[in-house]
UniProtKB/TrEMBL annotation:
The gene coding this protein: gpsA
Function, in words: Catalyzes the reduction of the glycolytic intermediate dihydroxyacetone phosphate (DHAP) to sn-glycerol 3-phosphate (G3P), the key precursor for phospholipid synthesis.
Residues at which substrate binds: K86, R233, N234
Residue numbers annotated as active site: K169 (proton acceptor)
Protein name (Swiss-Prot/TrEMBL): Glycerol-3-phosphate dehydrogenase [NAD(P)+]
Catalyzed reactions per annotation: sn-glycerol 3-phosphate + NADP(+) = dihydroxyacetone phosphate + NADPH + H(+); sn-glycerol 3-phosphate + NAD(+) = dihydroxyacetone phosphate + NADH + H(+)
Residues binding NAD(+), per UniProt: A118, R233, K254
Major location category of this protein: cytoplasm
Binding site for sn-glycerol 3-phosphate: K86, G114, S116, K169, D222, S232, R233, N234
Lineage start: Bacteria, Pseudomonadati, Pseudomonadota, Alphaproteobacteria, Hyphomicrobiales
Compartment annotation: Cytoplasm
Family the UniProt entry places it in: Belongs to the NAD-dependent glycerol-3-phosphate dehydrogenase family.
Residues at which NADPH binds: R13, K86, A118, R233, L255, E257
Keywords recorded for this protein, A-Z: Cytoplasm, Lipid biosynthesis, Lipid metabolism, NAD, NADP, Nucleotide-binding, Oxidoreductase, Phospholipid biosynthesis, Phospholipid metabolism, Signal
Pathway: Membrane lipid metabolism; glycerophospholipid metabolism
Length: 308
């Protein structure tokens, strides 16, 4: 947002962290080698967001409800909230836009998603993402305001499709990482990526998402990035599981959104009669209901069918 020319209030929950960022003009905890742009003003006072005309909600998916609840007290109803997390609420199975709509009824909501490692964006490497909102003017306006020299923000009306692509790709990345960690090879990774993508298309269709959205940046684009890169926390988590680590060891204290999302995604699919065997397998793996070899065996012995 700062690179696109906006003055930015950067809220952090920890007052010491906000103070340190304001003093050092860097975020040593999360992006240590990237100086803060001069137009970024760190704070830990939520009330300082009340004058902002758009909010980027960049917290883990499972924290969206807590932070939105607090924000609802300070934001005017017309201020759009842009969800940047990729996941599904584990306890309720809600899409994140439904969590936000629940807490801020009638307020504008959008989602920003796509292939974009935070560090790449922060240092100004070329990146393209999608901003979706049901309101076409809001989607186009927010996308234009966030786009800059290095970050291209496309806009879309398909909020559900964008949310499903972002949440689902993390689950697929775990499957791909596990296959690589177990030594199953690049061909297995490609098979899991393609068949997993087909699962995402099916579940998105069942929830009203458009195929074009899934084939775009927030779907295929992010599947390609996350399933192929060891820099992805979800992929790296899967890779460590594949090498025999326990779930806790594999996570290593890092945020692994796919591990929180897999079960909820499987349940959403089942509720609409959609088959997602790869997501089911990841859900079983991260819950400790099945081992990796057993999971692969079950996937490989599924009845053959026409490719869909
Ligand atoms: N990192 C990346 O490259 C990308 C991440 N995303 C998505 O963005 C989301 C956040 O990921 P990421 O930024 O990496 O995660 P982090 O773990 O770095 O957390 C982001 C921020 O959220 C804060 N936070 C966590 N829990 C709470 C809470 N309960 N209340 C208030 N603040 C909280 C953290 O604060 P504190 O520092 O105090 O812990 C931190 O500043 C995820 O859904 C991820 O999938 C999407 C694209 C790229
Ligand atoms: O969403 C991301 C890139 O688009 C980041 O993925 P990880 O959370 O797996 O690191």
């Amino acid at each position: 947002a700062a690179a696109a020319g906006a003055p930015v209030v950067l809220w952090a929950r920890d007052p010491d962290h906000a103070r340190e960022m304001a003093e050092t003009r860097a975020n040593a905890r999360h992006l240590p080698d990237v100086p803060l742009a001069t137009s970024v003003r760190p704070t830990s006072a939520l009330t300082e967001l009340s004058g902002c005309d758009a909010i980027l909600l960049v917290v883990p998916a499972q924290a969206v409800r807590e932070v939105t609840t607090a924000l609802a007290f300070v934001l005017p109803t017309h201020a759009p909230l842009v969800i940047c997390a990729k996941g599904i609420e584990r306890d309720t199975g809600f899409f994140l836009s439904d969590v936000v709509a629940d807490l801020r009824p009638g307020a504008p909501v959008a989602a920003l998603s796509g292939p974009s490692f935070a560090h790449d964006v922060a240092i100004g490497l070329p990146t393209a993402v999608t901003l979706a909102a049901p309101d076409p003017i809001l989607a186009a306006t927010l996308a234009a305001r966030l786009s800059g020299r290095a970050l291209r923000v496309y806009h879309s009306l398909d909020l559900r499709g964008v949310e499903i692509g972002g949440a689902g790709k993390n689950v697929l990345a775990i499957a791909c990482g596990a296959a690589i960690g177990r030594g199953l090879g690049e061909s297995a990774r490609a098979a899991l990526t393609a068949r997993g993508f087909s699962e995402l298309m099916r579940v998105a269709r069942a929830y009203g998402g458009r195929a074009e959205t899934l084939m775009g940046l927030s779907g295929l684009g992010d599947v390609v990035l996350t399933c192929a890169s060891a820099a992805s926390r979800n992929f790296a988590f899967g890779e460590r599981l594949g090498r025999g680590a326990s779930v806790a060891e594999a996570a290593g204290g890092k945020l692994v959104e796919g591990a929180f999302t897999a079960n909820a995604l499987s349940a959403l699919a089942r509720a609409r009669g959609v088959e997602m065997p790869i997501a089911d397998a990841v859900a079983a793996l991260v819950a400790g209901r099945a081992g990796l070899d057993e999971t692969m065996e079950a996937l490989m012995s599924r009845p053959l069918k026409a490719e869909d």
